[in-house]
Amino acid sequence: LHGRQVRTDDLSVQGDGYSVAGRGSVSVNGRLALHVGVALSRALTRDLLGRGGLAAAFGVSPGRGLRVPLELTGTIDRPRVQASPEWTRALLRRTLGGSAVGGALERLVH
Question: Tell me, what's the pLDDT at 72?
Fold first, then answer.
């Protein structure tokens, strides 16, 4: 406990087919400021995205599972979960390429 916040640099959750690792803080009033990485197993990734274009669009390398960096903000009662801006911009580049729509959407991601 530091300054009315609980901080962690080694948050870890393991599940069947996935893992979550991260760092950040939760304040005593329930405010979240966490950065986590979600890693899916190859099998779960294949079940969700298949083996083809969709997996590639999400940046999955052959023989690997999906990895998504997330930011958790808001409160414990009303969490806000979003993919990191960098990951989202990369997804837009992979799916929309150099199109005008892709460029416009990429600029909107903070």
Answer: 96
